Automatic annotation (TrEMBL):
Entry cofactors: heme
InterPro entries per UniProt: Cyt_P450, Cyt_P450_CS, Cyt_P450_E_grp-I, Cyt_P450_sf, Cytochrome_P450_fung
Organism: Serendipita vermifera MAFF 305830
Protein name: Cytochrome P450
Protein family: Belongs to the cytochrome P450 family.
Pathway in which the depicted protein is active: Secondary metabolite biosynthesis
MF term (GO), any: monooxygenase activity
């Protein structure tokens, strides 16, 4: 992990240049790889200096727990993100919200009421329906599996947040939200925009060549505002006509009334469900497909475990979860192997602090977990021992800002992954000589890191499952 501050010379870190500090060494792309390398050199907590602003990196779970959980009263702020927060406008959302304490508590209470470990079970039918739809889409058009997985995840989150059923990939709830989400991931990439480490450039005139970031921010802001208006207006119209599906927004709108402030808070916190929950949940699922294609021994074990439960005649459901421990271990392992948010979401310490003799000024820790195990070796068995789970769950963050959707996310992951394993075999594409061509896959940069698209064969495993779903639809 890393922490940023105005004067933390106590901490070790790479030597930088006068004034620029480590600006030229700090990667704008897949920064977590360099942070992991620096972690090996400088230890579990070190600092970077970007234009005189110190950034503190925490590179172990223990330091993260010591600071972000045990001292969460002072480590739960978010850093000022000028590009994503102020210029594009995301600082009103939950994720970048600076602690205006009462508002943040209210947001988190609303979210917890809906997504807490027990409450989230109300969405199991929505999640099971999305799993069935995923299986049908994969059976009709397996080559587009990335889009089908994304749609399954998105439709679940949109249903939970807005009560809206997505009926095509052209649905504005999908198109506008995906655009806004992609923009957010780029805008919030740590240190990717000069304005975030050198705030005075915010004031340069729009017409100057260096002001490209401002023009980008205006466009992204407009797209974000369109999305916010479209989503809340859709639910308000449904309430007015009396035909309203229960959802996060409709429940809060009906209990709090439609006055301006309440409405503003509701639309922002609902959008945070989407931005927090859609793109992130896609990553472990697409990574699992990759693991199934590259590791036939893992796939065979998963299939054997599944067949004992379903006998190849039906899709699994939530009641089957305890009988599928290897699947659970595989899901934890893919989240550890390729965390959806490799550098975490930065926290900021609000007062000066001292940790193990190091002075920690106000700063923004970025969580990295790659030091925990050999990051490149897939070994689901490590989770069957039972004591390693907390470490993977660190991918959901720490302390008062821990992901409020972690239970909902794990439920969606379980049911979508289990259904795919039950229904399909995943194989590499073969060349003309019949030799398998294993996909070599890079992960994208940005706050959320996805596997780049790859090809594989997805073939039904059982003659019974797909007709069974079609009949039950
Ligand atoms: C595999 C899926 C997911 C991963 C890996 C993930 C990861 C994270 C992480 C790392 C954070 C920041 C935590 C911190 O600052 O310490 C976060 C925040 C958040 N997540 Fe998730 N998340 C996932 C799914 C979801 C889902 C399904 C939802 C909602 C339905 C959700 C909603 C949120 C929200 C609203 C925040 C902001 C919380 C705050 O700043 O107070 N996430 N998530």
């Amino acid at each position: 992990m890393v922490i940023v501050s105005s004067s933390s010379d106590d901490l070790p870190g790479p030597r930088g240049l006068p004034i620029l500090g480590n600006v030229l060494q700090n990667p704008l792309d897949r920064e977590w790889l360099q942070y992991t390398a620096w972690g090996k050199q400088f230890g579990n907590i070190f600092k970077l200096n970007l234009f005189r602003q110190n950034v503190i990196i925490i590179n172990s779970r223990k330091v993260a727990v010591d600071l972000l959980e045990k001292r969460s009263a002072i480590y739960s702020d978010r850093p000022r993100l000028i590009m994503a927060g102020e210029l594009v406008g995301w600082n009103k959302g939950v994720t970048l919200r600076r602690p205006i304490i009462t508002e943040l508590r209210r947001y988190r209470k609303d979210l917890h009421g809906m997504l807490g470990s027990k409450a989230t079970r109300q969405f199991w039918p929505v999640q099971e329906k999305a799993a069935k739809e995923l299986i049908l889409s994969l059976s009709k058009d397996p080559s587009d599996f990335f889009a089908h997985i994304r749609r399954a995840v998105t439709s679940t989150v949109v249903k939970i947040a807005y009560g809206h059923d997505i009926d095509s990939n052209q649905d504005p709830f999908v198109t506008l939200a995906e655009k806004a989400q992609a923009n957010f991931s780029l805008a919030a990439t740590p240190n990717a925009f000069v304005v975030d480490w050198f705030p005075p450039v915010k004031f340069i005139p729009d017409w100057m060549p260096m002001a490209g970031f401002k023009r980008k921010a205006y466009l992204w802001r407009r797209q974000l505002e369109d999305l916010l208006e479209m989503t809340i207006e859709t639910v308000k119209r449904a309430i007015e006509t009396g035909v309203v599906e229960p959802s996060y927004v409709s429940t809060l709108l009906m209990s709090r009334g439609l006055d301006g402030d309440a409405e503003d808070e509701i639309k922002w916190s609902a959008l945070s469900l989407y931005t927090g929950g859609a793109d992130t949940t896609v990553v472990p699922l697409t990574t699992l497909v990759l693991v199934l294609v590259l590791h036939p021994e893992i796939k065979a074990r998963l299939q054997r475990e599944m067949d004992l439960v379903t006998s190849g005649t039906r899709l699994p459901n939530f009641q089957d979860r305890d009988s599928l421990p290897f699947l659970r271990a595989c899901l934890l392992e893919v989240m550890r192997f390729r965390p959806a948010i490799p550098s975490g979401v930065a926290h900021r310490v609000v007062t000066e602090d001292v940790y193990k003799g190091f002075r920690i000024p106000k700063g923004a820790p970025i969580c990295l977990h790659h030091d925990l195990y050999n990051p490149e070796k897939i070994q689901p068995d490590r989770f069957l021992a039972g004591d390693n789970e907390d470490r993977t769950l660190a991918v959901f963050g720490f302390g008062r800002r821990i992901c409020p959707g972690l239970h909902t996310a794990q439920d969606s992951l379980f049911i979508l992954a289990a259904s795919m394993v039950a229904a399909f075999d995943f194989l590499p594409i073969c060349d003309t000589m019949g030799n398998p061509r294993l996909p070599m896959v890079n992960y994208t940069t940005g706050m959320i890191s996805h596997p780049e698209q790859f090809k594989c064969q997805i073939i039904p495993r059982s003659k019974e499952i797909i007709p069974f779903i079609e009949e039950s639809e």
